[in-house]
Amino acid sequence: MHTVEKIGGTSMSRFSELMDTILIGDRKGDDLYNRIFVVSAYGGITNLLLEHKKTGEPGVYARFANAENESAWSEALTEVRIKMLDINRELFGDTTEREEADAFINKRIADVEAIMSNLQALCSYGHFQLDDHLMKVREMLAGIGEAHSANNSVIALRKQGVNARLLDLSGWDQEEPLPFEEMIESSFADVDVSKEMPIVTGYTHCKEGLMKTFDRGYSEMTFSKIATKTGANEAIIHKEFHLSTADPGIVGLENVVTIGRTNYDVADQLSNLGMEAIHPKAAKGLRQQEIELRIKNAFEPDHAGTVISTDYCSEKPCVEIIAGRPNLFALEIFDQEMLGEARYDIELPRLLNELRLYVVNRDSDANSITYFVAGTRKMVTRAVRLIGQKFESAEVELHKVAIVSAIGSNLKVPGILARTVSSLADAGISVQALHQSMRQVEMQCIVNQDDYESAVRALHHALIEQEDHGDVICAA
C-alpha cells in the first residue's frame, strides 16, 4: 500500500528542511518508498510566470498577452530564469548537481522563449490570432515552474542515495496531448513505487486542459487523480501550518486548537470561503473511492495532522473551526415586481457568472435578493450598472461586507444561534444577515468589513475556547 503526497510551493521553498522531515528524515531502505510526491513550483515562481495571485501584478504570461513587442515579456522571462538559477545555487552550491540543474532549466527557458517569439511573429499576420493560443502559452509557462522544482528534488534525493524518479507530466516534447486519466495511467505504467520514489510535476498537460477549468488549482487535480488511479491507501497534503480552529494570526497561536478529524463537507465549506484544504473537484474523486485525506504540517512530521474522510461525524456536537472571508460585496437588488418572477433567479446568476464574480452566498425575501460576491471593484460596479439596465424598476445597492462562519461536521450545538448573536453583540458588532442550513455543517454571519477580525475573535472565544478541547479537536 502506498501514499500520494502533495507539497505546496511555500513548503518547497524550505527544501532542505523537507529533506530532514518528510522526504528522508530518519527513513532508510524500504521505508523511503511506497510514497509518491506531487510537487508545486517554489514559492513565488508561478506568480512570476503568470501573474501575482493576490495583487494581479503581471508576470511573463500577462505581459505576453498584452505585449506590443517582445521586450515587454522577454525581460520578465529573463528575471524568472535568474530567480530559478539563484534557487539552484542555494540548493546545490558549486557542485556538478548544480550544473545539471542549471542545464535543465536553461534549456527549458530557451525553448519557451523561442516558441513565444515565433508565436508572436506568426500572430503579427492577420490570419493568426494570438488569443487562440494564449491558454496553451499559459499552460506551457505554468509547467516550467513544477518541472524546475521536481527535477531539483530528484537530483537532491539521488545525491542522498534515494532511487528518485522524475515524472514530468508537463507534456514537454510530447507530440499529442492525451486525455487526463490516460496521461496519468501511461506515466505510471512502469513505475514500481516499492523500489523508487516518483517525484511528479503538479501540472499535467492533457487534452482537456486543466487550466481552462481549474486555473491555479491544477496541482490538486493532478494529486487527486494520481491517488485515485494508483489506488492510494491515503492522500496527504503537506502545508506549512496545521489545519486549526481559526487563523492564528487573528486569534493568537496560543488560542487555536489543531483539528484532528473532520469530513469532506467541512472541507467544501472552507473552499467556498477561499480557505481551501483541497479543491472541491479534487476532493470528489477521493470521496468516491473513500480515500482519506490527511493535512499535515510539513515541518512537524511526528504530528498526526488532520484526517478528512467521507463519513466522519463528530460524536459530540461542536464547532470545529471559525473561518471567514473578508472583502466581499453585498449586491442588494430590491424590486416590487420580483414576487413570483422566476427570471430574477435565472438571469442574475448568469450575469454574475459572465462577470466572473464568485457568489459565496445569497439570501432573499418576497421582493429582494442579495448576493454576497467576491471579485474586483471594477466588475462589481459593472454588475450594478448592468442589473439596473436589465431590470429598470429595480433599486440596486452595494455594501462592503465580510462573512464569518462557524463550521463543523456536527453543528447541532444547543443554543449555538443565541451564543453567536450574543457574543457578537457583546463585542459591539452588528449582524447584517445570518444563514444556517438544515444540513447543520455551517452557520454564516454577515458583518461589516471593518468588523471581520473582531468577529472571528469573538466567535472563536465563545464557541471554541470556552469548550476547552485541549490540544486537538477530535483526535485523528
- The CATH topology assignment of the largest domain is Carbamate kinase
The gyration radius over C-alpha positions equals 24 Å
Q: Strand pairing plus helix content: what structural class?
A: alpha/beta
Determine and state the CATH class of the largest domain: Alpha Beta
Outline the structure in words:
This protein has 476 residues and is an alpha/beta fold. It folds into two domains: 238 residues, Carbamate kinase (3-Layer(aba) Sandwich), CATH 3.40.1160; 153 residues, VC0802-like. 41% of the residues lie in helices and 20% in strands. The chain has 17 helices and 16 strands. It has an eight-stranded mixed beta sheet, sandwiched between helices. It has a six-stranded antiparallel beta sheet with strand order 11-12-10-13-15-14. The protein has a two-stranded parallel ribbon with strand order 6-16. Helix 8 links the parallel strand 3 and strand 4. The longest helix has 27 residues. The protein is globular. The protein starts with a strand and ends with a strand. The mean pLDDT is 89.
Descriptive keywords:
single chain, globular, 8-stranded mixed beta sheet, Carbamate kinase, 476 residues, 2 domains, VC0802-like
Question: Helices, strands, pairings?
Answer:
Layout: E1 3-7, H1 9-12, H2 15-23, E2 35-39, H3 45-49, H4 60-65, H5 71-92, H6 96-122, H7 134-159, E3 164-167, H8 180-187, E4 197-201, H9 210-214, H10 218-229, E5 234-239, H11 248-251, E6 258-259, E7 261-263, H12 264-272, H13 280-288, E8 292-297, E9 306-309, E10 321-334, H14 343-354, E11 358-365, E12 368-374, H15 377-390, E13 395-407, H16 416-426, E14 431-436, E15 442-448, H17 452-463, E16 472-473
Parallel strand pairs: 1-2, 1-5, 2-4, 3-4, 5-8, 6-16, 7-9
Antiparallel strand pairs: 8-9, 10-12, 10-13, 11-12, 13-15, 14-15
Helix pairs in contact: 5-6, 6-7, 10-13, 16-17
